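# step 3/5: fold
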Amino acid sequence: MDQITPHLQTLGFTADEITVYLSALQSESVTALSLSKDTGIPRTTVYLIIDSLVLKKILTPVSVGEKNAYKAISPEKLMHIATKKKDEVYEALVGIRTELPTLQALYQSSQGKPTVRYYQGLSEVEKVLQHMLQHELIYLHCMLKNRYPYDTYLRTFREDMIRKMIRSQEIVTDQPHDVAYAQHVSSERNQVRSAPTSFASDTVVCVSGTTVIHIIHSETSPQAILIQNEQYAYAEAMRFTMLWNTLQILI
C-alpha cells in the first residue's frame, strides 16, 4: 500500500484522505464510525475527510438501513482521474509555452528597473539620509546657494558620517562659511573641495552604493527623491568624480 501513496498524493489527495480511501476500498460500504476505528483517525476528522472525498467523487454516499454509509469508487476510475490530470497539466504546459515570450518580456522589464521614492518634510529627509550611512563611501554634492533655517540636518548627517568612519568626498561652494566648514572637518578620510558659488543651486545630491538622493530645498521644508538603480548611481558617481578631479582641495 505504501507504494501507491505518493502516486495518489500527486493526484491531489492528502495522506489522511488516502488512508480513508484505502480503508473504504476493502469494504462494500463503510460508516464514519467504522472508518475511524479502522484508521485510528478521530471521528470528527473522518467526517471532514469524507466530505472532501465525496466532493472529489472518490466516495459515494449509499443507504444502509438508517445509517449514513459510503462506498469507495472502483480503482479503475483512478486511471480516469489520472488521465484527466495529465491532460490538464499538458494543456497548462502548452499554454505556458505559448505565453513564454510575453512572460519573459515582463520579467526582463523588471530587471534593473529603478526604484523611485518621494519624501516630504525635514523628518522624512533625515530618515532617508540614514539609509546612506550603510555604505563605505559617500559622495556629497552640497553646493547650496542659500542657507536655510532647517539645514542643520546636514550637520547631523556629516557628524554621523564622520563618527561611523565612513569615507566621503564632498563638494561645497567657495562661500566663507563653506570654506570655514571645510577647513574644520576635511581630512584624509573625509575630503572636502570647493567649486565657484556661481554654480550653486538649492539641491543637495548624495550618492552611495546603488542609491542616489536628490534633496530639494524650499523656504519652508526640504523634499527628497530617492532613486535606487546601479547604472544610475554609477553615472552620478562618475559625474561627481569628473567634477571632483578639477576642484581645489580645502584642508
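# step 4/5: annotate
The chain has two domains: 5-73, 115-249.
# step 5/5: archive (pending)
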